[in-house]
Amino acid sequence: MLARSVRISFNLAVNKYLYCQSEVKPSMLCWDAAVRLPAVHLIHGSDDHVVPVSSSTCFGDALWKRGASVVSATVISGCGHYDLCMDLMETDRFWHAPVMNEIRCAFSQHMQTA
Q: How far apart are the C-alpha atoms of 107 and 40, rounded to whole Å?
């Protein structure tokens, strides 16, 4: 799944509708009302100069309004766009441990409340 996500990220021009808040939010309004959205935890790097942190905020708001059971977010201080994407693939990379820890904590929190 991660490899697919990264592959899609590199094709942003082709897959803009998956990431751009001006594209994603309107398309979410067309989803069938019967679609049940899972809990979502968004992770964004504070030093992301490719996608502004506000995009995660807007996307989170749209998910919440659309009925996601839980929407939470974390901004990782000092982490950039490519750091977040690329460091997850190699365990010895600088941001791997902090990002994986955030994922584990969010998952654990969700499981306790589920």
A: 9
- What's the burial of 36, exposed, middle or buried (CB within 10 Å: 0-12/13-18/19+)? exposed
Nearest to 58 by CA among 66, 47, 69: 66
Domain ranges, ordered by start, for the chain: 2-113
Distance CA 91, CA 16 (A): 29
DSSP-assigned states of every residue in 12-43: TTTSHHHH-HHHHHHHHHTS-TTPPP--EEEE
Per residue in 43-86, pLDDT (tens digit) is 999 999 988 898 888 888 888 888 888 889 999 999 999 998 88
Whether residue 81 contacts residue 103, with contact meaning beta carbons closer than 8 Å, is answered with no
How many other β-carbons are positioned within 10 Å of the β-carbon of residue 63?
21
Q: What is the pTM of this model?
A: 0.70
